[in-house]
């Protein structure tokens, strides 16, 4: 009992010391250590997996979705998540955690666990709607209804297969 | 006398140096890099021979380009179009029955828009 109390106060003490000493570097141009990165990544992946588990995925094959999702993507997402033929932007280089390049197939994102397609549609919907805390990823659900968000999910599902020309036509305003 | 001159100069410097520094910073990162240009869909590069008419991406592109063509009806330069399109290839690969459907969908949508 005494030992437990000692450990708890030691833990609280360390936390306070770390918080107030200012030794934690919050600069975005200074990456986390491998351990902290792993900690945050696991926490994020499991949180999203759990929260998105029961989301019902609608039909994502309607061409109309590619048109609304496409223009939305170009204006709201491409600055961070890039467009076909583009490899970097101010945002993709400057943000930490870095926004994943959504123009390449999900399987090739380094270190990201991706289940089957339905599962990744669910996760994408959830992330777009709710955003991710303490990262650059905004919650678009505050300003966009589910239908628009599903259209973006449909669009980013096809995005890795699009050529720059196809992308241009789909995302242009008229 | 001398000291007032120095004072005046340093006052001017105090105002000018920050002003100049700030205005330089504004030009350092070319603003044109951050301007999104609103572009029209470039429908001239479509290669009809490679298109799969069942693919939602193809259908979506056709829709967008047909809408655009309708809008620009009068401005279209038909002489140029004839040169770029390879009709011999098109006839073989295109399924006209499906294309009409796309056209109808757009018409329906247009009627909708008029409400």
From TrEMBL, chain A:
Gene3D superfamilies given in the database record: Cytochrome c-like domain (1.10.760.10)
UniProt entry keywords in alphabetical sequence: Heme, Iron, Metal-binding
SUPFAM superfamilies per record: Cytochrome c (SSF46626)
Signal peptide stretch: none
Pfam families tied to this protein: Cytochrome_CBB3
GO molecular function, one term: electron transfer activity
Taxonomic superkingdom: Bacteria
Domain Cytochrome c: 64-160
Protein known as: Cytochrome c
From TrEMBL, chain B:
Signal sequence extent: 1-28
Domain of life: Bacteria
The keyword Signal appears for this protein: yes
Record keywords: Signal
Region annotation (Disordered) ranges: 80-115
Entry protein name: Pentapeptide MXKDX repeat protein
Source organism of this protein record: Colwellia hornerae
């Amino acid at each position: 009992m005494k030992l437990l109390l000692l450990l708890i106060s030691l833990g609280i003490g360390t936390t306070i010391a770390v918080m107030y000493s200012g030794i934690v570097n919050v600069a975005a141009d200074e990456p986390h250590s491998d351990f902290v990165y792993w900690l945050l990544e696991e926490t994020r992946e499991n949180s999203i997996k759990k929260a998105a588990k029961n989301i019902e995925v609608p039909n994502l094959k309607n061409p109309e979705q590619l048109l609304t999702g496409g223009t939305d993507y170009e204006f709201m997402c491409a600055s961070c998540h890039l467009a076909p033929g583009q490899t970097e932007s101010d945002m993709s280089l400057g943000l930490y955690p870095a926004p994943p390049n959504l123009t390449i197939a999900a399987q090739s994102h380094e270190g990201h666990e991706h289940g089957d397609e339905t599962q990744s549609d669910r996760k994408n919907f959830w992330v777009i709607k709710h955003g991710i805390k303490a990262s650059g990823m905004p919650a678009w659900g505050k300003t966009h209804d589910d239908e628009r968000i599903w259209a973006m999910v449909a669009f980013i599902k096809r995005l890795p297969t699009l050529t720059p020309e196809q992308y241009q036509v789909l995302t242009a305003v008229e | 006398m001398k000291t007032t001159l120095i004072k005046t100069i340093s006052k001017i410097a105090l105002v000018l140096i920050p002003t100049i520094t700030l205005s330089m910073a504004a030009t350092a990162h070319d603003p044109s890099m951050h301007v999104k240009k609103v572009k029209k869909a470039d429908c001239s590069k479509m290669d009809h021979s490679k298109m799969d008419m069942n693919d939602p991406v193809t259908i979506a592109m056709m829709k967008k380009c047909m809408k655009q063509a309708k809008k620009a009806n009068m401005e279209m330069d038909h002489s140029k179009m004839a040169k770029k399109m390879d009709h011999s290839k098109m006839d073989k690969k295109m399924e006209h029955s499906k294309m009409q459907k796309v056209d109808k969908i757009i018409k329906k949508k247009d009627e909708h828009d008029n409400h």
